[in-house]
From TrEMBL:
Pfam families: DUF4177. It comes from the Bacteria. This is DUF4177 domain-containing protein.
Length: 67
């Protein structure tokens, strides 16, 4: 089997609990689906941002497998 591993960093908006770039995650998944891969596994890790811009970061690691 063939696999592809991708990472996308999701940035939470400063005054919200929603991610500011879920479309980027969706686009990455759809791009792999168009190539004949399906999402096999997704894991996340979070880290607080200490910068002035605020907002936490969530690192999504996705493993896709060829259909």
């Amino acid at each position: 089997m063939n696999y592809v591993v991708l990472q996308v960093t999701l940035k939470e908006k400063l005054l919200s609990s929603r991610s500011g770039n879920l479309a980027e995650l969706e686009n990455a998944i759809n791009a792999q689906a168009a190539k004949g891969y399906r999402l096999h596994t997704i894991t996340t890790a979070s880290a607080a941002s200490g910068g002035f811009g605020g907002g936490d970061r969530i690192q999504a690691t996705m493993v896709f497998e060829k259909l």
